[in-house]
Amino acid sequence: MTITTSWVKRTALALICLGAMAPAWAASGSGGGSGGGSGGSSMPPQQVCNKGWVWSKPLQRCVKANSGSLDDKQLLEQGRALALAGYYENALAVLDAVQNKNDAIVLTYIGYSHRKMGDVDVGIGYYKQALAIDPNNLNTREYLGEGYVSAGRVEEAKLELSTIEKLCGNRSCEQYGDLANALAGKPE
User: Fold this and answer.
1) Domains and CATH numbers, the chain
2) CA distance linking residue 123 with residue 145, whole number of Å
3) DSSP 3-state of 109
C-alpha cells in the first residue's frame, strides 16, 4: 500500500476528530486535552495534546514539547503530523522544540506551516533553506512550487514542476500531480 499525503491528512484528521471526543484528557492535569492536534497515524486518538505539548510514549502522557522528554525524531514526527492535519500553530510549537534546526524535513514543515497560515514568503524562505540541505526532496519542491503559485509566481512554480518531473523520472509521482493541480487552480 502506498501512503500518500492525502491519506496522511485524512488519517490525522480522523484521529483528531476522534480524540476530541475522548473523555477525561482535558481534566488529566498533564497537558492533555481536546484542544490540540494529533501526532499522526501512530498515536491513538486519546493521546491528542494541547498546543505546545506532545505525547510521550515512555511516560504515557502529554509533556511540554520543550521538556527534553522526546528526541528530535519524535518531535519531527509529531510536528509533521500536526502540520499535515492543519494544526499549523501547534506544529510550529512542536517543531520549535527540535534541537537540530539544520534538518531539511524540519525546515520543510516549518515552512509548510507558515505558508498555510498565510506567511507565504516566510514559508518559501524555509523551503529554500531545506533545499540547500537536500535539493532532491520532492515534498519540499512541491510545497515550494505551491508557495510560488500562492504568491502569483507561476513561472517559478513551473520550474519546480519541471524539477520534480526530472527527479521522479516521469509525471506519475504524487508531488508532480499535486503541484500540477495547484498550477491548474485545483484545490489541494
Assistant:
1) 1-93 (no CATH), 100-188 (1.25.40.10)
2) 11
3) helix
Summarize pLDDT for 38-59 with one digit per residue, the tens. Answer: 334 444 444 568 888 877 777 7
Query: What confidence tens digit (pLDDT) does each residue in 59-97 have?
Result: 788 888 876 778 899 899 989 998 999 999 999 999 999
Q: How much is the pLDDT for 68?
A: 74
Q: Are the C-beta atoms of 44 and 16 separated by less than 8 Å? A: no
Give me the residue label for grid cell 510514549: 57
pLDDT tier, 188 (very low <50, low <70, confident <90, very high otherwise)? low
- Distance CA(53)–CA(5), nearest Å, equals 24
Q: Which residue spans within the chain are E strands per DSSP?
A: 32-37, 49, 53-56, 61-64
Give the contacts of 108 (CB within 8 A, at least 6 positions apart): 126, 127, 130, 137, 139, 140, 143
* Separation CA 186–CA 4 (nearest Å): 18
